[in-house]
Design a protein that fits this description.
The structure holds 2 protein chains of 2 kinds.
Chain A lengths: L1 H29 L18 H18 L5 H10 L4 H13 L3 H14 L13 H16 L9 H18 L4
Chain B lengths: L1 H21 L18 E6 L4 H19 L3 E6 L3 H8 L4 E4 L1 H8 L4 E7 L6 E2 L1 E6 L14 E3 L6 H13 L10 E3 L6 H10 L5 E5 H9 L8 E6 L3 E2 L2 E4 L5 H12 L6 E4 L2 E4 H5 L3 E3 L7 H9 L9
Parallel strand pairs in B: 1-2, 1-3, 7-8, 7-9
Antiparallel strand pairs in B: 3-12, 4-12, 4-15, 5-11, 6-9, 6-10, 13-14
The chains are: A mainly alpha, B alpha/beta.
Chain lengths: 175, 310
Protein backbone atom coordinates (compact mmCIF):
# COMPACT_ATOMS: atom_id res chain seq x y z
CA UNK A 1 0.00 0.00 0.00
CA UNK A 2 2.70 2.41 1.08
CA UNK A 3 4.85 1.41 -1.89
CA UNK A 4 1.97 2.15 -4.31
CA UNK A 5 1.55 5.55 -2.74
CA UNK A 6 5.28 6.24 -3.00
CA UNK A 7 5.29 5.10 -6.64
CA UNK A 8 2.39 7.41 -7.46
CA UNK A 9 4.03 10.32 -5.70
CA UNK A 10 7.26 9.65 -7.60
CA UNK A 11 5.38 9.57 -10.92
CA UNK A 12 3.58 12.84 -10.09
CA UNK A 13 6.91 14.44 -9.15
CA UNK A 14 8.44 13.30 -12.45
CA UNK A 15 5.54 14.83 -14.41
CA UNK A 16 5.92 18.10 -12.50
CA UNK A 17 9.66 18.19 -13.16
CA UNK A 18 9.09 17.56 -16.88
CA UNK A 19 6.50 20.37 -17.01
CA UNK A 20 8.90 22.73 -15.22
CA UNK A 21 11.62 21.78 -17.70
CA UNK A 22 9.34 22.56 -20.64
CA UNK A 23 8.42 25.92 -19.08
CA UNK A 24 12.08 26.83 -18.54
CA UNK A 25 12.93 25.86 -22.13
CA UNK A 26 9.99 27.91 -23.46
CA UNK A 27 11.13 30.92 -21.42
CA UNK A 28 14.68 30.53 -22.67
CA UNK A 29 13.40 30.49 -26.23
CA UNK A 30 11.62 33.82 -25.84
CA UNK A 31 14.69 35.61 -24.44
CA UNK A 32 17.76 34.63 -26.46
CA UNK A 33 20.96 34.37 -24.50
CA UNK A 34 23.47 37.04 -25.46
CA UNK A 35 26.27 35.48 -27.49
CA UNK A 36 29.66 36.19 -26.02
CA UNK A 37 30.42 39.08 -23.74
CA UNK A 38 29.34 42.61 -24.52
CA UNK A 39 32.96 43.56 -24.01
CA UNK A 40 33.91 41.44 -27.04
CA UNK A 41 31.84 43.56 -29.41
CA UNK A 42 34.05 45.55 -31.75
CA UNK A 43 33.19 48.44 -34.02
CA UNK A 44 33.11 47.28 -37.64
CA UNK A 45 34.48 49.54 -40.36
CA UNK A 46 32.45 49.24 -43.55
CA UNK A 47 33.51 50.78 -46.85
CA UNK A 48 32.94 50.64 -50.61
CA UNK A 49 30.24 48.34 -52.01
CA UNK A 50 29.66 46.88 -48.54
CA UNK A 51 28.71 50.35 -47.30
CA UNK A 52 26.17 50.71 -50.08
CA UNK A 53 24.69 47.29 -49.31
CA UNK A 54 24.67 48.12 -45.61
CA UNK A 55 22.71 51.34 -46.12
CA UNK A 56 20.29 49.75 -48.59
CA UNK A 57 19.49 46.90 -46.20
CA UNK A 58 19.32 49.18 -43.16
CA UNK A 59 17.01 51.68 -44.86
CA UNK A 60 14.64 48.95 -46.03
CA UNK A 61 14.66 47.32 -42.59
CA UNK A 62 13.87 50.72 -41.00
CA UNK A 63 10.96 51.29 -43.38
CA UNK A 64 9.49 47.87 -42.62
CA UNK A 65 10.04 48.26 -38.86
CA UNK A 66 8.38 51.66 -38.69
CA UNK A 67 5.52 50.48 -40.91
CA UNK A 68 4.77 47.79 -38.32
CA UNK A 69 5.85 45.09 -40.79
CA UNK A 70 8.13 42.08 -40.26
CA UNK A 71 11.76 43.11 -40.74
CA UNK A 72 13.19 39.96 -39.05
CA UNK A 73 14.68 38.36 -42.23
CA UNK A 74 16.41 41.64 -43.13
CA UNK A 75 17.56 42.22 -39.56
CA UNK A 76 19.01 38.71 -39.37
CA UNK A 77 20.95 39.39 -42.57
CA UNK A 78 22.21 42.69 -41.16
CA UNK A 79 23.16 41.14 -37.82
CA UNK A 80 25.06 38.38 -39.62
CA UNK A 81 26.93 40.65 -42.03
CA UNK A 82 27.38 43.78 -39.92
CA UNK A 83 27.48 42.75 -36.24
CA UNK A 84 29.84 45.62 -35.42
CA UNK A 85 27.49 48.36 -36.62
CA UNK A 86 25.52 50.04 -33.85
CA UNK A 87 22.72 51.09 -36.25
CA UNK A 88 21.78 47.43 -36.76
CA UNK A 89 21.33 46.74 -33.04
CA UNK A 90 19.53 50.01 -32.37
CA UNK A 91 17.03 49.19 -35.11
CA UNK A 92 16.67 45.59 -33.93
CA UNK A 93 16.00 46.95 -30.43
CA UNK A 94 13.32 49.35 -31.67
CA UNK A 95 11.67 46.52 -33.57
CA UNK A 96 11.74 44.15 -30.59
CA UNK A 97 10.41 46.88 -28.25
CA UNK A 98 7.58 47.74 -30.67
CA UNK A 99 6.57 44.07 -30.66
CA UNK A 100 6.68 43.83 -26.88
CA UNK A 101 9.83 41.64 -26.78
CA UNK A 102 11.36 43.68 -23.98
CA UNK A 103 14.17 41.30 -23.02
CA UNK A 104 15.42 41.05 -26.58
CA UNK A 105 15.12 44.82 -27.00
CA UNK A 106 17.24 45.36 -23.90
CA UNK A 107 19.99 43.05 -25.14
CA UNK A 108 20.02 44.74 -28.54
CA UNK A 109 20.10 48.24 -27.02
CA UNK A 110 23.03 47.13 -24.87
CA UNK A 111 24.92 45.99 -28.00
CA UNK A 112 24.17 49.31 -29.70
CA UNK A 113 25.34 51.28 -26.64
CA UNK A 114 28.47 49.16 -26.37
CA UNK A 115 29.38 50.09 -29.94
CA UNK A 116 28.16 53.69 -29.77
CA UNK A 117 27.81 55.27 -26.31
CA UNK A 118 26.17 58.39 -27.82
CA UNK A 119 22.81 56.64 -27.53
CA UNK A 120 23.00 57.54 -23.84
CA UNK A 121 24.51 61.00 -24.26
CA UNK A 122 21.81 63.62 -23.85
CA UNK A 123 23.82 66.11 -25.89
CA UNK A 124 23.98 63.78 -28.85
CA UNK A 125 21.45 63.80 -31.70
CA UNK A 126 21.47 60.00 -31.39
CA UNK A 127 20.21 60.10 -27.80
CA UNK A 128 17.67 57.37 -27.05
CA UNK A 129 18.39 57.33 -23.33
CA UNK A 130 14.85 58.03 -22.21
CA UNK A 131 13.55 55.03 -24.12
CA UNK A 132 16.42 52.82 -22.91
CA UNK A 133 15.94 53.94 -19.31
CA UNK A 134 12.21 53.19 -19.42
CA UNK A 135 12.86 49.76 -20.92
CA UNK A 136 15.58 48.94 -18.39
CA UNK A 137 13.26 49.91 -15.53
CA UNK A 138 10.51 47.70 -16.94
CA UNK A 139 12.78 44.67 -17.41
CA UNK A 140 14.38 45.15 -13.98
CA UNK A 141 10.95 45.22 -12.36
CA UNK A 142 10.09 41.92 -14.04
CA UNK A 143 13.39 40.39 -12.93
CA UNK A 144 12.89 41.69 -9.40
CA UNK A 145 9.80 39.53 -9.21
CA UNK A 146 12.18 36.60 -8.78
CA UNK A 147 13.04 36.42 -5.10
CA UNK A 148 16.77 35.87 -5.54
CA UNK A 149 19.22 35.71 -8.43
CA UNK A 150 19.29 31.95 -7.97
CA UNK A 151 15.64 31.84 -9.01
CA UNK A 152 16.58 33.19 -12.45
CA UNK A 153 17.47 30.88 -15.31
CA UNK A 154 20.59 31.50 -17.41
CA UNK A 155 18.85 33.92 -19.81
CA UNK A 156 17.33 35.78 -16.86
CA UNK A 157 20.77 36.16 -15.29
CA UNK A 158 22.21 37.37 -18.60
CA UNK A 159 19.38 39.87 -18.87
CA UNK A 160 20.03 41.11 -15.35
CA UNK A 161 23.74 41.55 -16.11
CA UNK A 162 22.85 43.50 -19.24
CA UNK A 163 20.35 45.67 -17.37
CA UNK A 164 23.06 46.47 -14.79
CA UNK A 165 25.47 47.29 -17.64
CA UNK A 166 22.97 49.77 -19.09
CA UNK A 167 22.26 51.28 -15.69
CA UNK A 168 25.99 51.80 -15.13
CA UNK A 169 26.26 53.43 -18.54
CA UNK A 170 23.29 55.69 -17.82
CA UNK A 171 24.83 56.68 -14.53
CA UNK A 172 28.02 57.56 -16.37
CA UNK A 173 30.13 54.70 -15.09
CA UNK A 174 33.26 53.46 -16.81
CA UNK A 175 33.66 50.00 -18.30
CA UNK B 1 31.31 118.79 -17.73
CA UNK B 2 32.68 115.48 -16.38
CA UNK B 3 29.14 114.59 -15.30
CA UNK B 4 27.90 115.18 -18.88
CA UNK B 5 30.61 112.89 -20.27
CA UNK B 6 29.67 110.18 -17.77
CA UNK B 7 25.98 110.58 -18.64
CA UNK B 8 26.70 110.36 -22.38
CA UNK B 9 28.81 107.25 -21.78
CA UNK B 10 26.03 105.68 -19.70
CA UNK B 11 23.40 106.39 -22.37
CA UNK B 12 25.73 104.91 -25.01
CA UNK B 13 26.18 101.71 -22.98
CA UNK B 14 22.41 101.38 -22.42
CA UNK B 15 21.80 101.88 -26.13
CA UNK B 16 24.36 99.21 -27.09
CA UNK B 17 22.81 96.73 -24.64
CA UNK B 18 19.29 97.49 -25.91
CA UNK B 19 20.24 97.11 -29.57
CA UNK B 20 22.17 93.87 -29.00
CA UNK B 21 19.28 92.33 -27.03
CA UNK B 22 16.81 93.19 -29.81
CA UNK B 23 18.95 91.55 -32.48
CA UNK B 24 17.66 88.12 -33.51
CA UNK B 25 19.83 85.39 -32.04
CA UNK B 26 21.62 83.73 -34.93
CA UNK B 27 24.87 81.86 -35.26
CA UNK B 28 27.61 82.64 -37.80
CA UNK B 29 25.72 80.84 -40.55
CA UNK B 30 22.50 82.77 -39.88
CA UNK B 31 20.77 79.84 -38.15
CA UNK B 32 18.35 80.48 -35.30
CA UNK B 33 19.93 79.38 -32.05
CA UNK B 34 18.41 77.68 -29.06
CA UNK B 35 18.69 80.56 -26.61
CA UNK B 36 16.26 82.78 -28.44
CA UNK B 37 14.53 84.88 -25.82
CA UNK B 38 12.81 87.38 -28.06
CA UNK B 39 11.65 85.45 -31.07
CA UNK B 40 10.08 82.00 -30.54
CA UNK B 41 10.37 79.24 -33.11
CA UNK B 42 7.14 79.01 -35.04
CA UNK B 43 5.69 75.52 -35.58
CA UNK B 44 3.13 75.45 -38.36
CA UNK B 45 0.52 72.73 -37.95
CA UNK B 46 -1.53 71.78 -40.97
CA UNK B 47 -5.17 71.68 -39.87
CA UNK B 48 -6.32 68.07 -40.21
CA UNK B 49 -10.06 67.84 -39.58
CA UNK B 50 -10.80 71.19 -37.93
CA UNK B 51 -8.80 73.88 -36.16
CA UNK B 52 -10.26 72.90 -32.77
CA UNK B 53 -9.37 69.24 -33.30
CA UNK B 54 -5.83 70.05 -34.48
CA UNK B 55 -5.21 72.51 -31.64
CA UNK B 56 -6.46 70.01 -29.06
CA UNK B 57 -4.16 67.35 -30.52
CA UNK B 58 -0.95 69.38 -30.74
CA UNK B 59 -1.05 72.00 -28.01
CA UNK B 60 0.28 69.54 -25.39
CA UNK B 61 3.08 68.43 -27.74
CA UNK B 62 4.12 72.03 -28.39
CA UNK B 63 4.12 72.75 -24.67
CA UNK B 64 6.11 69.57 -23.98
CA UNK B 65 8.77 70.50 -26.53
CA UNK B 66 9.01 73.99 -25.05
CA UNK B 67 9.24 72.80 -21.45
CA UNK B 68 11.83 70.11 -22.17
CA UNK B 69 14.04 72.04 -24.57
CA UNK B 70 13.83 75.48 -23.02
CA UNK B 71 13.19 76.85 -26.50
CA UNK B 72 10.10 79.06 -26.79
CA UNK B 73 7.66 77.81 -29.43
CA UNK B 74 4.65 79.39 -31.01
CA UNK B 75 2.06 77.08 -32.57
CA UNK B 76 0.43 78.35 -35.77
CA UNK B 77 -2.57 76.49 -37.21
CA UNK B 78 -3.06 76.82 -40.93
CA UNK B 79 -5.31 75.48 -43.65
CA UNK B 80 -3.61 72.97 -45.95
CA UNK B 81 -3.13 75.32 -48.89
CA UNK B 82 -1.79 78.10 -46.62
CA UNK B 83 1.07 76.02 -45.20
CA UNK B 84 3.49 76.08 -48.20
CA UNK B 85 2.81 79.80 -48.72
CA UNK B 86 3.58 80.60 -45.06
CA UNK B 87 6.75 78.48 -45.21
CA UNK B 88 7.93 80.17 -48.40
CA UNK B 89 7.37 83.59 -46.80
CA UNK B 90 9.67 82.50 -43.97
CA UNK B 91 6.86 82.58 -41.39
CA UNK B 92 7.45 79.01 -40.20
CA UNK B 93 10.55 77.36 -38.73
CA UNK B 94 9.14 73.88 -38.21
CA UNK B 95 6.21 72.37 -40.06
CA UNK B 96 3.88 69.48 -39.28
CA UNK B 97 2.19 68.47 -42.51
CA UNK B 98 1.18 65.65 -44.79
CA UNK B 99 3.66 64.04 -47.19
CA UNK B 100 2.58 65.99 -50.28
CA UNK B 101 2.99 69.33 -48.52
CA UNK B 102 6.41 68.14 -47.37
CA UNK B 103 7.39 67.40 -51.00
CA UNK B 104 6.18 70.85 -52.07
CA UNK B 105 8.06 72.62 -49.26
CA UNK B 106 11.20 70.50 -49.71
CA UNK B 107 11.67 72.40 -52.98
CA UNK B 108 11.97 75.52 -50.78
CA UNK B 109 14.38 74.04 -48.27
CA UNK B 110 12.31 71.98 -45.82
CA UNK B 111 14.12 68.88 -44.52
CA UNK B 112 12.60 65.88 -42.73
CA UNK B 113 12.77 65.94 -38.94
CA UNK B 114 10.62 62.99 -37.77
CA UNK B 115 7.91 60.72 -39.10
CA UNK B 116 4.70 60.17 -37.17
CA UNK B 117 3.54 56.66 -36.28
CA UNK B 118 -0.19 56.16 -36.14
CA UNK B 119 -2.36 53.11 -36.73
CA UNK B 120 -1.62 49.68 -38.14
CA UNK B 121 0.75 50.89 -40.88
CA UNK B 122 3.06 52.81 -38.57
CA UNK B 123 4.65 55.89 -40.09
CA UNK B 124 3.04 55.14 -43.44
CA UNK B 125 -0.50 55.14 -44.67
CA UNK B 126 -2.22 54.33 -47.95
CA UNK B 127 -5.19 55.59 -49.87
CA UNK B 128 -8.05 53.43 -51.03
CA UNK B 129 -11.24 53.57 -53.07
CA UNK B 130 -14.29 52.19 -51.32
CA UNK B 131 -17.79 51.29 -52.42
CA UNK B 132 -20.74 49.93 -50.46
CA UNK B 133 -20.45 46.21 -49.81
CA UNK B 134 -23.60 45.61 -51.87
CA UNK B 135 -22.45 47.77 -54.79
CA UNK B 136 -22.41 46.22 -58.29
CA UNK B 137 -19.07 47.99 -58.93
CA UNK B 138 -16.34 45.33 -58.99
CA UNK B 139 -13.35 46.94 -60.71
CA UNK B 140 -11.87 50.41 -61.17
CA UNK B 141 -12.99 50.34 -64.81
CA UNK B 142 -16.60 50.02 -63.57
CA UNK B 143 -16.28 53.52 -62.08
CA UNK B 144 -16.58 55.11 -65.54
CA UNK B 145 -19.85 57.03 -65.60
CA UNK B 146 -20.25 56.84 -61.80
CA UNK B 147 -20.35 59.51 -59.05
CA UNK B 148 -17.35 59.72 -56.79
CA UNK B 149 -16.35 61.74 -53.70
CA UNK B 150 -12.74 62.73 -53.07
CA UNK B 151 -10.94 64.15 -50.06
CA UNK B 152 -9.20 67.55 -50.19
CA UNK B 153 -7.02 68.09 -53.24
CA UNK B 154 -3.74 68.26 -51.33
CA UNK B 155 -4.43 65.03 -49.41
CA UNK B 156 -1.90 62.36 -50.46
CA UNK B 157 -4.01 59.39 -49.35
CA UNK B 158 -7.38 61.11 -49.81
CA UNK B 159 -6.98 62.43 -53.35
CA UNK B 160 -3.55 61.98 -54.94
CA UNK B 161 -3.33 58.19 -54.56
CA UNK B 162 -6.83 57.57 -55.87
CA UNK B 163 -6.36 59.98 -58.77
CA UNK B 164 -3.28 57.99 -59.81
CA UNK B 165 -5.08 54.66 -59.33
CA UNK B 166 -7.86 55.79 -61.67
CA UNK B 167 -5.45 57.10 -64.31
CA UNK B 168 -3.47 53.84 -64.17
CA UNK B 169 -6.75 51.92 -64.65
CA UNK B 170 -7.59 54.01 -67.72
CA UNK B 171 -10.30 56.07 -66.03
CA UNK B 172 -9.69 59.82 -66.37
CA UNK B 173 -11.40 61.42 -63.36
CA UNK B 174 -11.93 64.67 -65.27
CA UNK B 175 -13.61 63.03 -68.27
CA UNK B 176 -14.82 59.53 -67.46
CA UNK B 177 -16.58 59.93 -64.11
CA UNK B 178 -20.14 61.22 -64.32
CA UNK B 179 -19.33 63.62 -61.54
CA UNK B 180 -16.85 64.02 -58.74
CA UNK B 181 -16.94 66.27 -55.71
CA UNK B 182 -14.92 67.35 -52.68
CA UNK B 183 -17.01 68.02 -49.56
CA UNK B 184 -17.05 71.44 -47.91
CA UNK B 185 -15.79 72.23 -44.42
CA UNK B 186 -14.28 70.06 -41.71
CA UNK B 187 -13.92 66.25 -41.46
CA UNK B 188 -13.88 65.74 -45.23
CA UNK B 189 -12.49 62.20 -45.01
CA UNK B 190 -15.43 61.10 -42.87
CA UNK B 191 -17.93 62.92 -45.05
CA UNK B 192 -16.86 60.98 -48.16
CA UNK B 193 -17.30 57.67 -46.32
CA UNK B 194 -20.79 58.64 -45.16
CA UNK B 195 -21.49 59.96 -48.69
CA UNK B 196 -21.05 56.41 -49.99
CA UNK B 197 -22.77 54.82 -47.02
CA UNK B 198 -25.92 56.94 -47.56
CA UNK B 199 -25.82 56.38 -51.33
CA UNK B 200 -25.08 59.95 -52.46
CA UNK B 201 -21.93 58.72 -54.20
CA UNK B 202 -21.06 55.38 -55.78
CA UNK B 203 -17.46 55.41 -54.56
CA UNK B 204 -15.15 57.43 -52.35
CA UNK B 205 -11.45 58.18 -52.05
CA UNK B 206 -10.51 57.59 -48.43
CA UNK B 207 -7.28 57.40 -46.42
CA UNK B 208 -7.16 53.86 -45.03
CA UNK B 209 -6.01 55.21 -41.67
CA UNK B 210 -9.19 57.29 -41.35
CA UNK B 211 -11.29 54.28 -42.30
CA UNK B 212 -9.41 52.20 -39.73
CA UNK B 213 -10.13 54.79 -37.00
CA UNK B 214 -13.80 55.02 -37.98
CA UNK B 215 -14.14 51.23 -37.78
CA UNK B 216 -12.27 51.18 -34.46
CA UNK B 217 -14.64 53.76 -32.98
CA UNK B 218 -17.74 52.00 -34.39
CA UNK B 219 -18.59 54.99 -36.57
CA UNK B 220 -18.84 52.65 -39.54
CA UNK B 221 -18.84 48.87 -39.86
CA UNK B 222 -16.07 47.28 -41.90
CA UNK B 223 -18.47 44.76 -43.44
CA UNK B 224 -20.65 47.56 -44.82
CA UNK B 225 -17.85 48.78 -47.10
CA UNK B 226 -15.71 47.10 -49.73
CA UNK B 227 -12.21 48.17 -50.67
CA UNK B 228 -12.09 48.34 -54.45
CA UNK B 229 -8.41 49.30 -54.75
CA UNK B 230 -5.57 50.49 -52.57
CA UNK B 231 -2.46 52.51 -53.35
CA UNK B 232 1.12 52.02 -52.27
CA UNK B 233 2.06 52.94 -48.70
CA UNK B 234 3.53 56.42 -48.38
CA UNK B 235 4.61 58.46 -45.35
CA UNK B 236 1.82 59.72 -43.13
CA UNK B 237 2.26 63.09 -41.38
CA UNK B 238 5.76 64.39 -40.85
CA UNK B 239 7.66 67.08 -38.97
CA UNK B 240 10.00 69.08 -41.21
CA UNK B 241 12.53 71.75 -40.33
CA UNK B 242 13.35 74.90 -42.28
CA UNK B 243 16.82 76.04 -43.36
CA UNK B 244 16.99 78.86 -40.79
CA UNK B 245 16.95 76.53 -37.79
CA UNK B 246 20.41 75.47 -36.62
CA UNK B 247 21.31 71.76 -36.78
CA UNK B 248 21.82 71.80 -33.01
CA UNK B 249 18.29 73.02 -32.31
CA UNK B 250 16.84 70.65 -34.92
CA UNK B 251 18.75 67.79 -33.31
CA UNK B 252 17.40 68.62 -29.86
CA UNK B 253 13.81 68.70 -31.10
CA UNK B 254 14.31 65.45 -33.02
CA UNK B 255 15.76 63.79 -29.94
CA UNK B 256 12.80 64.90 -27.81
CA UNK B 257 10.37 63.51 -30.38
CA UNK B 258 12.17 60.14 -30.67
CA UNK B 259 12.26 59.77 -26.88
CA UNK B 260 8.59 60.56 -26.29
CA UNK B 261 6.94 57.84 -24.20
CA UNK B 262 3.27 57.10 -23.55
CA UNK B 263 3.63 58.35 -19.97
CA UNK B 264 4.94 61.80 -20.93
CA UNK B 265 2.65 64.70 -20.08
CA UNK B 266 2.39 68.46 -20.47
CA UNK B 267 0.35 71.05 -18.64
CA UNK B 268 -2.07 73.04 -20.77
CA UNK B 269 -4.37 75.57 -19.09
CA UNK B 270 -3.99 73.84 -15.74
CA UNK B 271 -4.68 70.37 -17.10
CA UNK B 272 -2.04 67.61 -17.17
CA UNK B 273 -2.42 65.92 -20.53
CA UNK B 274 -0.80 62.86 -22.09
CA UNK B 275 1.19 64.18 -25.05
CA UNK B 276 1.03 61.13 -27.30
CA UNK B 277 -2.49 60.08 -26.42
CA UNK B 278 -3.85 63.58 -26.93
CA UNK B 279 -2.07 63.81 -30.28
CA UNK B 280 -3.46 60.41 -31.24
CA UNK B 281 0.07 59.36 -32.17
CA UNK B 282 1.93 56.14 -31.35
CA UNK B 283 5.35 57.77 -31.53
CA UNK B 284 7.88 59.52 -33.75
CA UNK B 285 10.49 57.75 -35.87
CA UNK B 286 13.43 58.61 -38.16
CA UNK B 287 12.54 59.51 -41.71
CA UNK B 288 14.58 60.46 -44.76
CA UNK B 289 13.83 62.48 -47.86
CA UNK B 290 13.97 59.35 -50.04
CA UNK B 291 10.93 58.01 -48.15
CA UNK B 292 8.91 60.56 -50.14
CA UNK B 293 10.02 59.44 -53.62
CA UNK B 294 6.80 57.51 -54.23
CA UNK B 295 4.79 60.65 -53.38
CA UNK B 296 6.87 62.59 -55.93
CA UNK B 297 6.15 59.94 -58.54
CA UNK B 298 2.40 60.20 -57.86
CA UNK B 299 2.49 64.00 -58.05
CA UNK B 300 4.30 63.89 -61.41
CA UNK B 301 1.83 61.37 -62.89
CA UNK B 302 -1.21 63.34 -61.76
CA UNK B 303 0.12 66.80 -62.64
CA UNK B 304 0.00 67.96 -59.02
CA UNK B 305 2.21 70.50 -57.22
CA UNK B 306 5.14 70.96 -57.09
CA UNK B 307 5.36 69.54 -60.63
CA UNK B 308 2.11 70.98 -61.98
CA UNK B 309 2.16 72.19 -65.60
CA UNK B 310 -0.62 74.18 -67.18
Amino acid sequence: MNRTLINRLTEALAVLCAAAGVLILARSATVPVIEGSLADMKVQVVAGPDMERFHTLLDEARRITDSNGDPDPLLQELEGSFPGRHEVWALAARNAAAQGRDGEALLDFARAVRLQPDYLDERSVMFLGKRIEALTGKVMAELDAARTRRDLDSSGKELLKTAYFLRRQMAGGCE
Amino acid sequence: MRFEIKLTYLIFVILVISVSSCKPSTDMSGHKEADISVQPLRIGYMICDSIEETRARFEPLTRYLQDRSGIPFEAVYLNTFEVPEAFERGDLDIVHSNSLLYVIMHEKGLEPLAGEKRGSMGYRSAGGIIVRADSPIKTLADLAGKRMAFGPQLAPTGFLTQYELLIEAGVDPELDLEYYAIPWGAYKHEKVVYGVWFGTYDAAAVPLLDLELMVRDNRIRQEDMRLLARGDPIPYCVFGVGPDVSPDVAGRIRSLLFNLLPGDTAEVEGEILSVLRRAGVDGFVPITDSDFDRVREMARKTNMPPYQKF
